[in-house]
Design goal:
The complex is a heterotetramer of chains A (107), B (92), C (333) and D (122). Chain A has 3 helices and no strands. With 107 residues, chain A is mainly α. Chain A has one domain. The longest helix of chain A is centred in the C-terminal third of the chain and has 31 residues. Chain A is elongated, with a radius of gyration of 18 Å. The N and C termini of chain A lie far apart (52 Å). Chain B is mainly alpha-helical. Chain C has a domain of 211 residues. Helix content of chain C is 74%, strand content 0%. Chain D starts with 5 loop residues before the first helix and ends in a 7-residue tail after the last helix. Chain D has 4 helices and no strands. The radius of gyration of chain D is 20 Å and the shape is elongated. The chains are: A mainly alpha (107), B mainly alpha (92), C mainly alpha (333), D mainly alpha (122). Chains A and C meet through helix 3 of A and helix 9 of C.
């Protein structure tokens, strides 16, 4: 079992798990009952899904230039993603979007 | 595996679009569009690898940046007091 | 069906669905946000069709600038559209169907998509741009060499159009104070976002990196996607972000208005002076071969870099000044 | 499918949706949004002319032979930035119109013009 094969395997696994996270986040965004629960789904794809897919790509990059860019993208997303969801949730709270309780109709 | 990941991202794009179309109302749409933006970053990165020219990842970086700017802009500029929006808030 | 076709179809489907939704939405904030989505998807399509430079520009412009301007205008005016009366819808539908049918009929004469023997691909200029340029200019990104060297006159013309449009916007919005120009330091816009501490910290942290990225895009344009237009827009987007979080006055402290206004003509002047310098050194207008006597390739490199820089200065100046003048106007409601 | 035209038809459909928004809607901002959609579809049309089968982005690299044509890319790249500058001009006009009339609906603007005796465009 050579190192390159190991890398390939790790990359594939990471891509696969990342895709599953991304997909489940998409389904969650569609199926969850209200805005605040949907933020959870969006946060899931943005951090776990995107991070794993980019990690999978990072494991099969040919040169360091591409690797640097991938790392930068991950860092940037890690900074901005939570910031925007945080601000969104706070703004919605201020604007009086109410939290969904079990039994209420979907919104 | 790249192909599978690309397919997953595309399918998620469609799901997100459905949420953006259905809404309801502003915040759900902002959330959906913000998430759509990160999916395009992933798509561009994957497409670069699929085409065997991954040296264009600058585009992905730019997408992440403008996506953030757009989200902030929506939040900032829709906060202006709009009597019509107020009315809608009452009606909710 | 190949994978390329499948991806194309999916993205086009998303585009069409978005466009239809935009047409049906009466809430204009939402419609504008969907326009941003439209622009992102079309940029992804540009990537699929190998136009990486175009994708770069479309994303920066369509999402970073255009959306912000639309939202700013909606904040100044009304954000809700009246119901479109039926009497307007039917004639429009007929016209659109007729025009679309005509286009589809005419498309039979178009060269096939992706064909290698289409007039575009077999034209002699293709070989010049893609192969000879490597010896003449030596810049790997052929888009940059065509933009800044082979078709430098064209680019100058486009820059003048941007200059004119920018000046016209400034005249329209800045000359007459209108019913309510905001006094410095006052106004409803100072309220909300500055209260979000996380956002404030992150934006302040990001701004230098965004500006650095703009310079990287400017100087790396010879080897990868990028160049003056994109750099200018990214630079402006950085200031737009700063202005959105800290208010117009905060952004003005970083980049004073006279400076932003001075950048607009400065770029064009630099461009023209560069062209005249080529003439003085014994070439034509905008001929860069003579800029470094004895080494035409180095001259071309220098010329391209200067062209990109001047384009970037003007574009950044126009975008920042336009954003400031929209943002510092108070709603007339 | 070497001889396919499907991409052009899809682009025409997008164009027509944009045109429809411009013609049918009375709100000036919505018209500008429609114009934007139309504009982007024209960009797509140009770029699709430059695409070649199995081509690659026109940034020359060792070991790659087929490139898509760079000329449409150059034309459209500049057109996008010009497009946003002219859109900004349109938006500035919209702001001034709203300040003068208090409305952005085309029909209402015509009515106001007619009432005040100014000749609107028919």
């Amino acid at each position: 079992m050579s190192a390159s094969l190991l890398l390939d395997l790790a990359s594939s696994a990471s891509l696969l798990v990342g895709s599953l996270f991304v997909l489940s986040g998409g389904i969650g965004l569609l199926r969850f009952p209200d805005f605040y629960t949907r933020i959870h789904a969006a946060g899931l794809t943005d951090s776990a899904g995107a991070g794993l897919i980019l990690l999978g790509l990072l494991l099969q990059t040919p040169g360091w230039e591409t690797a640097v860019r991938l790392v930068l993208i991950v860092l940037f997303m890690l900074l901005t993603g939570p910031t925007s969801t945080h601000v969104l949730a706070q703004a919605a709270g201020r604007d009086g979007v109410r939290v969904w309780r079990a039994g209420e109709p979907r919104r | 595996m790249l192909v599978a990941a690309t397919a997953a991202v595309l399918v998620t794009m469609v799901l997100t679009l459905v949420r953006a179309v259905l809404g309801p109302r502003l915040y759900n749409r902002i959330l959906a569009i913000n998430m759509f933006g990160t999916k395009t970053v992933l798509f561009v990165a994957l497409a670069g690898f699929l085409a065997d020219r991954p040296d264009f990842l600058d585009i992905g970086l730019l997408y992440a940046l403008v996506n953030f700017v757009a989200t902030i802009a929506v939040l900032r500029l829709t906060h202006e007091d709009d009597p019509l929006l107020e009315g809608e808030r009452e009606a909710r | 069906m190949s994978m390329f076709v499948l991806m194309n179809l999916t993205l086009f489907g998303i585009l069409a669905a978005t466009a239809v939704t935009i047409s049906r939405l009466r809430a204009l904030y939402e419609a504008t946000m969907l326009t941003a989505l439209f622009s992102l998807v079309s940029a992804s399509l540009f990537v699929l069709m190998d136009a990486v430079d175009v994708a770069f520009t479309e994303a920066a412009v369509g999402v970073g600038i255009s959306t912000v301007l639309f939202l700013g205008v909606l904040a100044l005016t009304r954000s809700r559209e009246d119901v479109t009366p039926r009497i307007r819808q039917w004639p429009a539908r007929v016209v659109v169907l007729l025009a679309g049918g005509m286009l589809v009929y005419a498309s039979q004469d178009l060269p096939r998509f992706e064909g290698a023997t289409t007039p575009v691909q077999v034209h002699p200029v293709t070989d010049v741009y893609l192969r000879e340029s490597q010896d003449d200019i030596g810049v790997p990104n052929t888009v940059t060499s065509v933009l800044a060297s082979y078709r430098a006159h064209d680019t100058l013309g486009e820059l003048v159009v941007i200059f004119t449009a920018g000046v016209a916007v400034l005249l329209l919005l800045a000359s007459s104070p209108g019913p309510g120009r905001r006094e410095e330091g006052e106004g409803p816009a100072e309220l909300v976002l500055a209260d979000y501490r996380v956002l404030r910290v992150i934006s302040k942290l990001l701004l230098p990196f965004i500006l650095l990225f703009a310079f990287y895009v400017l100087f790396h344009g010879e080897y990868g996607p990028g160049g003056g237009f994109q750099a200018g827009v990214i630079f402006a987007a950085g200031f737009v972000l700063y202005g959105l979080v800290f208010g117009v006055d905060g952004a003005r402290r970083v980049l004073p208005r006279p400076l932003a206004w001075a950048m607009i003509p400065l770029g064009i002047l630099l461009y023209v002076v560069l062209g005249l310098a080529g003439m003085l050194l014994g070439g034509e207008f905008l001929d860069f071969q003579g800029l470094r006597p004895g080494d035409p390739q180095a001259g071309q490199h220098l010329g391209i870099l200067l062209v990109e820089t001047s384009v970037g200065i003007t574009v950044a100046g126009v975008m920042v000044a336009v954003f400031f003048s929209f943002a510092s106007r108070r709603a007339a409601r | 499918m070497s001889g396919s035209l499907y991409v052009y038809w899809l682009i025409f459909a997008l164009m027509m949706i944009g045109l429809y928004i411009v013609i049918s809607h009375g709100n000036l901002v919505k018209k500008l949004i429609g114009l934007n959609i139309f504009q982007v579809s024209v960009f797509l049309l140009y770029i699709s002319f430059g695409k070649v089968r199995d081509g690659s982005a026109p940034i020359v690299k060792e070991g790659i032979d087929t490139y898509s044509h760079p000329l449409p890319h150059v034309l459209i790249l500049t057109a996008i930035v010009v497009g946003v500058a002219t859109t900004a001009l349109g938006l500035a006009l919209v702001v001034r119109i709203f300040e003068a009339y208090g409305s952005l609906e085309e029909d209402l603007l015509h009515e106001r013009d007619a009432a005040s005796g100014v000749d609107g465009p028919s």
